[in-house]
Amino acid sequence: MQRHRHPGRSSVRRPCLVLAAGLVAGLLALSGCAASDSASDASSGDSKRAFGAEERGAADAAAGKAGQGTAGSPSQRKKTDALPSGTHVIRTAALSVEVRNVPKAAAVARSAAEGSGGLVADEKTERVDDTHDMSRLVLRVPQGDYEAVLKRLAGTGKLLSRTSSAKDVTDQVVDVESRIATQRASVARVRKLMDQAEKLSDVVTLEGELSSRQASLESLLAQQASLKDRTTLATITLDLSEPETAAKDGDDGPGFLDALGGGWHAFVTALLWLAMAMGAAAPFLAAAAVLLLLWRLLRRRLPGRRAPRTPGPGGSSPAPPAS
């Protein structure tokens, strides 16, 4: 038995299918628009964040340049301070040590300074009263070996005195570096103005200003070099001395050789004084000898004198003897 299709049902299903397809297409379109809107919102947010980061970076760079371009107050310098080395300290010390042998102790001090990577800046040695030596050394040693070198120097003999000091110059180092950056920027601006100047009067004025600013820059660079040297190498002044009794051998009294040497010295001294006395009296002795010789010669040439006659008992003189 054959079934007959009802024409009304097919006509009803087609509009339903068309309506369902339209609804699905609309939902898909709405979801696509929402996704595109969210994507566009995300991209715009990323671009805004990137632009904001760029603006913040530019602002930070401008702030850093402004901080370097002006000396500013200490608080401003601390905010813009970017020194990686930290604290800068100048260390100095002075030692006075009594040693048995000054030359040997000085050699040990030189070895300690040069072994640590330092140097001997100054050295002076003198002999006092022809009995003992004294020496003064100025040593420059790295900051890291400062304490070790001090300990070694103090152990060379009897420590008489020790003084040390440490001065923090971090603010001064930062200030000089900031002023150097400012002065360099100032010199660069003056040179740029000189390149753009057209009048001779302007060129002359700018040249004078450039010379003045360059002189200030060189002075600041010299200060920076001095600070770097003093904060890199510590200064140690070492005084070495010998005891006054170091020249003695340690004997309580003089020995035979000392007595023999003293007697010989006295004998030579007596001979020297005798020779000096004879030398002083030689002219007078020579004159006396010449006078004595002349007197004897004159006495021999004169005729002999007759002996005086004595009166006899009767008052008459005796008769001369017969020939």
The sequence of SSEs as H and E is HHEHEEHEHHEH
- Percentage of residues in helical conformation: 55-70%
Instruction: Output mean pLDDT.
Output: 74
Q: What is the overall shape?
A: elongated
Gyration radius (Cα, Å) is: 58 Å
Low-confidence stretches: 1-12, 30-84, 246-251
* Biggest sheet statistics: 5 strands, mixed
Number of beta strands:
5
Count of alpha and pi helical runs: 7
The class by helix and strand makeup works out as alpha+beta
- Placed side by side, the strands forming the largest sheet appear as 2-3-5-1-4
Please characterize this protein's 3D structure.
The chain has helices at 7-69, 74-79, 102-115, 146-154, 170-196, 200-232, 256-301, and strands at residues 89-98, 119-128, 132-142, 158-168, 233-241. It contains seven helices and five strands; from the N terminus they run ααβαββαβααβα. Strands 2-3-5-1-4 form a five-stranded mixed beta sheet. β2 and β3 form a beta hairpin. It is elongated, with a radius of gyration of 58 Å. The N and C termini lie far apart (244 Å). By secondary structure, it is of the alpha+beta class.
